[in-house]
Specification:
The complex is a heterodimer of chains A (383) and B (81). Chain A is of the alpha/beta class. Chain A is built from eleven helices and 22 strands. Chain A has two domains: 188 residues, FAD/NAD(P)-binding domain (3-Layer(bba) Sandwich); 132 residues, FAD/NAD(P)-binding domain, CATH 3.50.50.60. Chain B has two helices and four strands, in the order E-H-E-H-E-E. The chains are: A alpha/beta (383), B alpha+beta (81).
Amino acid sequence: MERIVVLGGGVGGTLAANLLARRLRRQIGAGEVELTLIDEGGEHVYQPGFMYIAMGGERAERLHRPERSLLNDRIKLVIARAKRIDHAARQVEVEGGQSIGYDWLIIATGARALPDEIPHFTEEAHHFYGADAAARLRAALDAFDGGRIVIGIAGMPYKCPPAPLEVTFLIESELRQRRLRDRSEIHFCSPIGRAFTIESVSEMATPIMEEKGIELHTFFNVEAIDPERRVVQSLEGEELPYDLLILVPPHRGAQVVIDSGLAPPSGWLPTDLHTLEVRGTERVFAIGDATDLPLSKAGSTAHFEAPVAVERIVAAIEGRPPSAKGSYTGKVMCFFEVGDGKGTLLQFDYDHPPRPPRPGRIWHLGKVVFNRVYWHTVPQGRV
Amino acid sequence: MQTLETPVTRVVDARGSYCPGPLMELIRAIREGSAGDVIAVYSSDNGSRIDIPKWVEKAGHRLVAIEKRDGYDEIVVEQLR
């Protein structure tokens, strides 16, 4: 009996489990393979929707569904918090004392946003990395009647790299519609020497920022917030006053992989670029935000990685070498909002940087449609 | 390479990491370090030769040296504050 455990019921984990269930249908039916997914809360959350709670239109209740409802019936679902992965014993220990053994493990434990790592973040700054936080930001934007908005990044890497730029463009667009733009300044702080990590995206976004009067501050790594003077300070020694402060919180990988000695304190699992195996282990794969790969932490990345880990496991169980589908090329594809009902598309891999098309309505609508059809397509492996 | 006055006190091996990975690794080392530390960053990403000196200037530290090694660059930075 081959025991496969998928840890985490996000985009990557759910898709991987469903693909395994389909491809190993016969072996599971014959009792030769057992497939288990462990998820802490038992709810599948569509995280890209959080930004749209803050930017209007989206409701938190539409962004989660029971994990069971998305899983193939052949998958056993265990709802419990994983405390430790004991790789020597090949088992996952979950809260309540149960241990679940594995021969193959896919770690899809995601990333955590940790605003409390910056003192005064919770009282002074807003973010959109959770439904409640995004709703608070929406309320703050509703109450905003002009002033200085500062948008920055308090640690890299973080989930959905384009999101802070998208939020900047969407807020600028909203302020114009509300006739508040003349009374407002918008400052965007980038931790690196340009607006965005990927050069071609930076070249696309920077002229839009100039055109919209958004002030770009490069090499501004958020270090501290002074709540009395209402200024945000950078590691580089600069400070910016704010009336409304929006920061991407510091992110880390899951505590369980740190506690299990599989990842350093950052929590990002050392992962092979192509096989997605966790370095220093055997038969353990990492997908999605959990990895240390030099790629976007985004659902799209997990979406394209899951079939790779699945092919490698299925091939081994079937006693053959993995096909080309078992080697990850770094493929990522995501929509990028630029405001005013327009968007563009970022599609790239390890060897090919994105060449975003001219922003247009079609890409914005593409994102809107994708957000709706997600539930019926991605987790089941239909796209 | 570095003189006797600036012996390297910490090595950050960011080889295999892509832009802005090596810069972010340096920033992490600076956050953890203190004035007087001399950090050698190993980077195989060509962008680091441009990004890191620009950041060092802006952040008020001192670029000690950039040396071409076998398949990577060694960029040495003295932390001044």
